[in-house]
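Supplementary Methods, section 5.1.

A reviewer requested that the exact input to the structure prediction be made available. We therefore reproduce it here, unchanged from the version used in the analyses.
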Amino acid sequence: MITDYNYRIESGQNKEWKFNVKWITVTGVILLQFAIIVYMLSPPAVSKPDAVKINKVDNEKTVKEFKFYYLLPKAIEAVVPEHEVIARSREDYIGKGRNKLYSLQAGSFKNINQANKLRQTMTSLGLTTQLEIHQKGVTTWHRVVVSALSIQNVKEKKALLRKYNIDALVTESTSDKI
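The structure derived from this sequence is encoded cell-by-cell as follows.
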C-alpha cells in the first residue's frame, strides 16, 4: 500500500490568501476607467476673472476691457533685443520704419561714483549722456543713459560702445514719439 506522506490541509484550516496579480490589475483598470468617465461627464468649472469687463456693443460685437491697462504707467520702457534692432534699422533704411525714439542704457549702479565714472568715459567718446535716478523700494539706482536716438543712431552708438567693452541695453519708450 502506498502511503501519502504529504499532509493534507482540510478546508477552512490555515488558508493562505494568495492574491492573483491579474485580478488586482483588472480591478484597478476598471476603477480607473470609471474615474475617467465620471471626470469626462462632469461639467467644467468656469470662473469669470474680476479683471475682465465685457461690454456689449451694437451688432453683437463684444469688447473686452482689462483693468491693468489703466493701472500701468503712461510711459513704459520696452527692452529691444539685438535682432530686433537690426530688423528695425533695415525697415528704417528702406523707409518702412516706425518713427520712434530709443535710448541706450550703458549701466545701472547703486553707487553714484561708479555711474559718474562710466558717464565720464562715455563723454570722452563723444556721447551725450544723462544720469537718471530711480528709486526701487529702499534701493536707489543710478542709470547712465544716452537718449533720444533714432534706430540708425542706436546701431552706430552701440557699435562704438561695444568697441570699448561697454555693453548697452536698447530701450524703447512708448511715450517718446517723433
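Residues 77-177 form a domain with the Alpha-Beta Plaits fold (CATH 3.30.70.1070). These observations are discussed further in the main text.
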